[in-house]
Amino acid sequence: MKRETGFTIIELLIVVVIAAVVAAIGGPAMGNFIKNNRLQSKTHAVMADVLHARGEAVTRKKSVVMCRSANADSATPTCGGTAPDWGTGGYITFVDEDLSNTFNAGDLLLRRGAKVSDNVTLMLDGTVDPEIRFSSDGTLNEGGNTAFLAVCDDRPDADGFGRRIDVPPHGRPRIITGITDCTP
């Protein structure tokens, strides 16, 4: 006689229970992993835009401005929006030919920063100007102040998951991780 092969119902139930336990343990960890990667990705995208703006100021020997925008994705974006929120409408980077701190005719649009999503916020410190201006030598033109851009998500501030981009007067930005205050 030929013997039948396969799994018994008990073996199948044991495998299902083990899979359920692993999913229950790994599910929350996977959620934090996804949120951490989302924050890191947005922080690095904004950091790349800050570095690009500084590099363009030095290369072109002109003033370059990053400003929040209520309509960064429109054909003719403008500076503006809800202070200090840079995430709702996005932001733009441009060569400020007339030194007006606002994008208008004659200025060269360099980049558009997309709106943030997935419960991520991007906030500029309220103690500096509503824009970030790099002088032609790559220094920050904020009256000696450091500009702070906080990138956070919907987790509580006290958990220390936030990130911040500091742009000091010399203009070289750096990323600070583990911040506990997402209102710069």
Question: Topology of this structure?
Answer:
Layout: H1 9-60, E1 64-68, E2 91-95, E3 108-113, E4 121-124, E5 131-134, E6 147-152, E7 162-167, E8 174-179
Antiparallel strand pairs: 1-2, 1-5, 2-3, 4-6, 6-7, 7-8
Task: Describe this structure as you would to a colleague.
With 184 residues, the protein is α+β, with helices and mostly antiparallel strands. It has a single domain, classed as minor pseudopilin epsh domain (minor pseudopilin epsh fold, 3-Layer(bab) Sandwich), CATH 3.55.40. Helices cover 28% and strands 23% of the residues. It contains one helix and eight strands. The protein has one helix at residues 9-60; strands at 64-68, 91-95, 108-113, 121-124, 131-134, 147-152, 162-167, 174-179. Strands 3-2-1-5 form a four-stranded antiparallel sheet, with helices on one face. Strands 4-6-7-8 form a four-stranded antiparallel sheet, covered by helices on one side. The longest helix has 52 residues, at 9-60. The N and C termini lie far apart (78 Å).
Write out key terms for the chains shown.
184 residues, alpha+beta, minor pseudopilin epsh fold, four-stranded antiparallel β-sheet, 23% strand
User: What global shape is seen?
Assistant: elongated
Query: How would you characterize the largest beta sheet?
Result: 4 strands, antiparallel
CATH superfamily: minor pseudopilin epsh domain
Biggest sheet, strands in spatial order? 3-2-1-5
What is the second-level CATH architecture? 3-Layer(bab) Sandwich
Alpha carbon gap, first and last residue = 78 Å
